[in-house]
Amino acid sequence: VIVSQDCGHAETARVIASYAPAVAHIRQPELADVPVPPEHRKFQGYYKISRHYRWALGQVFRTFRYRAAIVVEDDLEVAPDFFEYFQAALPLLRADPSLWCASAWNDNGKEGLVDAARAELLYRTDFFPGLGWLLLAELWDELEPKWPAAFWDDWMRRPEQRRGRACVRPEVSRTMTFGRKGVSHGQFFDQYLKFIKLNDRFVPFTRLDLSYLRKDEYERFFLAQVYSAPEVKLEELQKGAGGDSGPVRLQYRGRDSFKALAKALGLMDDLKSGVPRAGYRGVVSFVCRGRRVFLAPPSDWTGYDPSWS
After folding, report:
1. Which metal ions or organic cofactors does this protein require, according to UniProt (predicted)?
2. Under a CB-based contact definition with an 8 Å cutoff, are residues 137 and 67 in contact?
């Protein structure tokens, strides 16, 4: 475990040092303000965070020479099977170049939107979730030379970084954040983040067959499941009409349609470079009134529109 400190607080350093020798304590050497454009003065914190990520990941992969790393912020609580999950995800990333990371986070992981009884379920997502994530040294080799001055997570979500690759994410989050105070001033915290369901039981992922997450196999079964599900209207879904409890599909036909349906269902409705949170090929999977729902574009979907935001 490497703890990278990005402040000069003596008390913080003392607490970190108290965990020695179980942790390696490293300190960001540059603590001064970052020169920013005048209109970005209020975003100084985002510039410092990006600078710290670049330095700390450089230490992990260049100085310590690790071949993979799990990035965890200091305001995250982790699930009992957090490390088990990533241990199982590591071979997937090494074997499948269409995957570029694995994340512990489900952006739509609020209680009531997930099936807590199916905590072993994993998905591919085109959205970079962060909040506890695994990357390989090879990915850092690619990203480091062009690492951004600020807003690194949204930068990761741009098509020129993602390059058509996906991330693994769980049905039930393996992290939860208690960080209401921070650089983002609690953006999304009261509405979404504090309600994220943290998995509370151990799933032996390393003993499970996760080959279904390989691109070809996943798209075959996932898309068949989505587009064979009967289409329903929002009103039917909200009323819980019908005796059948099988999966259903709710179709959107444009940016405004997606945002309206997501908002009505309590999902995160923002898009980054056209990609919905937790979405794969435009499809967002969640639970409503105990029923699996796929919020999906038409079956002839041809790709994300980066102008959607």
Report:
1. Mn(2+)
2. yes
